[in-house]
Design a protein that fits this description.
This protein is an alpha/beta fold. About 30% of the residues lie in helices and about 25% in strands. It has helices at about 85-95, 110-125, 140-150, 165-170, 170-185, 195-205, 215-220, 220-240, 250-260, 275, 300-310, 325-330, 350-360, 365-380, and strands spanning about 10-15, 15-20, 25, 30, 35-40, 45-50, 55-60, 60-65, 95-105, 130-135, 155-160, 185-190, 245-250, 265-270, 315-320, 400-410, 425-435, 440-445, 445-450. The structure holds zinc ion. Zinc ion (ZN) binds near residues 102 and 323.
């Protein structure tokens, strides 16, 4: 910044209540060269944002999104409809300033090559900062040999699908991958459903003539999730490597994770917002297939257990698992419980809905909200304190959240190309007035202003324990 008399910084966020996981205070935030340069005092900026009556929070980190596919689908075959461009717009509109994308290899592709493919796509389109999680499908010796290099290059996470047939078939090598990952400071993300039990349940339903999408919940039973979480905890214990259970959905699975934590193991739990706001009843609606994701929606007792886990700290992070489809493709009746298209759009709704249903109802403290949506993921994914907090020297990633802003969710006017939201019709209070990404105003007056390609890939440190 050049020196101009009377001007201290590039941007001031004025008059809001600044909150972090550690506490809150009314103060101004000064930003210079994309970073927070001063908290408090009376800075004067080239530009000012009015945060009066609003909360100034660390921008959200959503470490679980799907904005890329390994290869284009066959002509006529549907696929996830958001890319790094529309996905970033949804993030910004929802107060999320850092995303973590699952990077799947195409058949026979190396982890490095698949990361290069997604880095190229993100460089062109991403409007927010991002990291990529390489997905390990085939744990060949060559793939395992890549892991230490990936960690050294700043890719300090790895994703495994316990539900995939490949996991069971090569479990020895998968466990070795978790060991190597931990040894090099990587966090292993695990989709915890037992593949054989899921396939068994789906086949039983099909044979009984009950394979339709309306039976989605029965096709992915809780014991399959609990068994996989128990095993993930055992893998953590055996290898000494930290594991991060993605989209945990049930009370029994949460108990299994807690048992590991209570023995001092580095087991971390992410839940998906869908499980906090809907139950399996929604899947029985005439268009219930629009809520399909794996694991499925559960029972009211599971919803209550997850909210309790968010409040008491046994759930560590929220991840949207943003994986949007067009509604017609979700509802396609040629699909059954073994082929259903999994995933929903949730990047734009994750923070406002957690705030509305959690903080405003008193179920969650504001500090817990910030831990879950920003500080914990930043630590776990090696980005703290650059991301995940409001401190001098940190990136100026902020969401100015207005608790008075009410909106009825309507996916047809939101940023995701899905064109619908699983929460259409929900009344939500508490939306971003502004989103700031590295000092740039990315959302103002409901308009996403971020230029595609301005987002940066973030090299990461080792995972930090919580
Ligand atoms: Zn996912």
């Amino acid at each position: 910044m050049g020196t101009v008399p009377g001007i201290d910084c590039d941007l001031v966020v004025r008059g809001g209540t600044v909150a972090t996981a550690g506490g809150s205070a009314e103060c101004d935030v000064a930003i210079t060269d994309g970073r927070i340069s001063q908290l408090g005092g009376s800075p004067r900026g080239r530009r000012e944002l009015d945060a009066g009556g609003a909360l100034v929070l660390p921008g959200g980190l959503d470490m679980h999104v799907h904005l890329s596919s390994p290869e284009p689908p066959e002509p006529g075959e549907p696929a996830w409809v958001d890319d790094f461009g529309s996905g970033s717009a949804a993030a910004i509109a929802g107060g999320v300033t850092t995303i973590g994308n699952m990077t799947f290899p195409a058949d026979g592709d190396t982890l490095h090559h698949s990361l290069d493919r997604d880095l190229t796509a993100a460089r062109a389109l991403a409007g927010v900062d991002y990291v990529l999680h390489p997905v390990l499908i085939d744990p060949t010796p060559e793939a395992l040999a890549e892991l230490p290099q990936l960690a050294a290059e700043g890719h300090t996470s790895l994703k495994l699908f316990m539900v995939a047939g490949e996991f069971e078939a090569q479990a020895d090598a998968m466990i070795e991958a978790v060991r190597i990952a931990g040894q090099h400071g990587m966090l292993t993300l695990m989709h915890c459903e037992d593949g054989a039990l899921v396939r068994f349940a789906g086949e039983q339903l099909r044979q009984a003539g009950r394979g339709g999408l309306g039976n989605w919940a029965a096709s992915r039973p809780v014991p399959a999730e609990r068994a996989a979480v128990d095993r993930a905890v055992a893998i953590c214990e055996a290898t000494g490597s930290p594991v991060y259970i993605v989209h945990l959905s049930s009370e029994q699975a949460l108990r299994a994770a807690r048992r590991g934590r209570s023995r001092g193991l580095p087991v971390y739990v992410e839940t998906r917002p869908l499980y906090l706001h809907l139950t399996s009843q929604a899947l029985a609606e005439p268009q219930g297939a629009k809520y399909i994701g794996a694991p499925p929606l559960r029972e009211p007792s599971d919803v209550a257990a997850l909210w309790a886990g968010l409040a008491d700290g046994s759930v560590h992070a929220l991840g949207s698992d943003h994986a949007p489809w067009m509604l017609r493709d979700k509802l396609d009746e040629s699909q059954d419980v073994t082929t259903a298209r999994q995933g929903v759009a949730d990047l734009e709704t994750m923070l406002p809905m957690l705030f509305s249903a959690g903080v405003l109802t008193g179920r969650l403290s504001l500090a817990r909200f910030i831990s879950l949506t920003a500080t914990n993921p930043a630590r776990l994914f090696g980005l703290y304190p650059r991301k995940g907090t409001i401190a001098v020297g940190s990136d100026a990633d902020l969401v100015v959240l207005d608790p008075q802003l009410r909106r009825t969710v309507d996916g047809s006017v939101m940023q995701s190309r899905a064109g619908y939201s699983a929460y259409d019709g929900h009344e939500v209070r508490g939306w971003p007035r502004f989103t700031v990404s590295r000092g740039e105003v990315a959302l103002e007056d409901g308009q996403v202003l971020a230029r595609p390609g301005r987002g940066q890939w973030l090299p990461r440190e080792r995972t930090a324990a919580l």
